[in-house]
Write a structure and sequence with these properties.
Layout (H helix, E strand, L loop, with lengths): L1 H32 L23 H17 L1 H14 L5 E6 L7 H17 L6 H11 L1 E7 L7 E5 L16 E4 L2 E11 L6 E6 L3 E5 L17 H21 L4 E5 L3 H10 L26 E5 L6 H19 L3 H5 L7 H39 L7 H4 E6 L8 H13 L5 H7 L4 H13 L1
Antiparallel strand pairs: 1-10, 2-3, 2-7, 4-5, 5-6, 8-9
């Protein structure tokens, strides 16, 4: 017995030793082999994690089509897009130029740059606007703006639909964007395909096409619409509202209940007498018109019915769905529904805080994108001899966006004045907060004093 147990123990130890050796050898082989390159981006990029690349191209296209339909038919989606538009690219958006570093300001150069920029916007007003650029980006998840240098001033720009940027059958996994083999974020060429034939008809250099994308990581080629997390919730809300309306319609279809005291034969005779005379002769209902006078005997009782919809019990469910949609959009409920009656003034001001930061974040994002376009336009002017060759080294753009919130202008300006007296803020910064050019204001003030 003891010999048997001893043999079993030695066998178990030997098996455990072999398992440990096999595991160590497997680990050595894995370390020698190293990480695998990312499958859909050949090159030296190493795979970290499970290699998930987010949404597939088919899912991305479906979300974009659904978002386009939503902003045209759904009031809440339309209101959300309108809010972003007016607070980011609405009235108050304008450009001024500032000198780079401590160098003195060249007023003639500033005026010349602003004039050329205005000429560019005027010439392309039918093909480009800040509002459309932002709306396309939010709705589609990306925006393609193609830039066409011209032999004469000004240059031209045109939007390119996202459907047209695709690799077609020649490069189906490229998503229409060819990148550096060793860096997926370095774009070399964009492929434009014919929407009818599906074939690639043009290769656009990366410096001629401005691609703005949102909702994805930096190493993903295409963007995702901001309505992606809202589509199912908005569809569920529409279904709930349709169900409640149908229930109310059904419950309101019978408005009068006649109670006859007597035998069933009396009820049948009365019903036959009030039949409407349809083809089958089986419809037992009576029309009651405005001003109708009903005369009955003591054996007939009339009861006018009211819809028992219990709509008040269903309202919390609808509001819960709206709260989920508002959370996904990043705005408070009163902004999404345009109804501020659910909260008082103090609660509303607190609730709008995250939305204010959202709008400011979007303003900063598009300021960088618009600056890239401005630099291209100024470089084109320099190439045509309209500006000095080193113009982009001397000035930089300053964007003034719509004011997100302004509750008490007098109190805010008094606070700014005290901060200027305490030398916390400069007078120029206070002027910029009012979306005015400090240099222009100083010149006008000096002119008024001398007049």
């Amino acid at each position: 017995m003891w010999q048997f147990l001893s043999d079993k123990w030695r066998a178990w130890q030997l098996r455990a030793k072999y398992q440990r050796l096999v595991q160590e050898r497997v680990l050595e082989l894995l370390e020698e082999r190293g990480p695998e390159p990312v499958a859909d981006e050949p090159g030296n990029w190493q795979l970290v994690g499970d290699g998930s690349r987010g949404l597939s191209e088919a899912q991305r296209l479906e979300l974009r089509d659904q978002a386009r339909k939503l902003v045209q038919t759904n009031p809440y989606a339309r209101n959300l897009l309108r809010l972003l538009e007016i607070y980011v690219t609405g009235p108050g958006l304008r450009l001024s130029v500032l000198p780079i570093g401590p160098q003195p300001r060249d007023a003639a150069l500033d005026r010349n740059c602003e004039r050329l920029w205005k000429e560019f916007l005027d010439a392309n007003h039918r093909h480009f606007s800040f509002r459309e650029t932002a709306c396309r980006t939010w709705r589609d998840g990306e925006c393609f703006l193609r830039m066409f240098p011209q032999p004469l001033w000004p240059p031209a720009v045109r939007y390119v639909d996202p459907e047209a940027i695709d690799g077609g059958a020649s490069a189906p996994v490229s998503k229409g964007i060819l990148t550096d083999p060793n860096d997926v974020e370095t774009v070399r060429t964009y492929l434009r395909r014919d929407l009818l034939t599906g074939e690639v008809v043009e290769e656009i250099p990366a410096d001629e096409l401005r691609h703005i994308k949102i909702g994805v990581d930096s190493n993903e080629k295409r963007g995702v619409t901001i309505f992606a997390p809202l589509i199912e919730s908005l569809a569920a809300f529409d279904k709930w509202l349709d169900t409640e309306l149908q229930a109310r319609k059904l419950q309101a279809s019978i408005v009068l209940w006649r109670k006859v005291h007597g035998s069933p034969s009396m009820v049948a005779a009365l019903a036959d007498g009030t039949a409407t005379g349809d083809v089958a002769g089986s419809t037992r209902r009576e029309r009651v018109r405005p001003g109708t006078i009903l005369t009955t005997s003591h054996s007939t009782e009339l009861e006018f019915l009211q819809p028992q919809t219990n709509f008040g019990d269903a309202v919390p469910l609808g509001r819960l769905m709206l709260l989920g949609i508002a959370a996904g959009a990043g705005v408070p409920e009163f902004m999404l529904s345009a109804d501020a009656s659910n909260a008082n003034y103090a609660s509303t001001m607190v609730a709008e805080g995250p939305a204010v930061k959202l709008f400011e974040s979007e303003q900063q994002f598009f300021a960088r994108e618009f600056e890239a376009l401005w630099r291209w336009v100024m470089s084109q002017a320099a190439d045509l001899g309209l500006l000095p060759p080193d113009v982009l080294e001397r000035i930089t753009p300053h964007w003034s966006f719509p004011q997100v919130v302004n509750r008490d202008r007098a109190k805010e300006r008094l606070t700014d004045a005290r901060l200027v007296e305490a030398k916390v803020l400069s007078r120029a910064e206070v002027a910029r907060r009012d979306n005015v050019d400090p240099a222009a204001m100083q010149a006008e003030i000096a002119g008024e004093r001398n007049s």
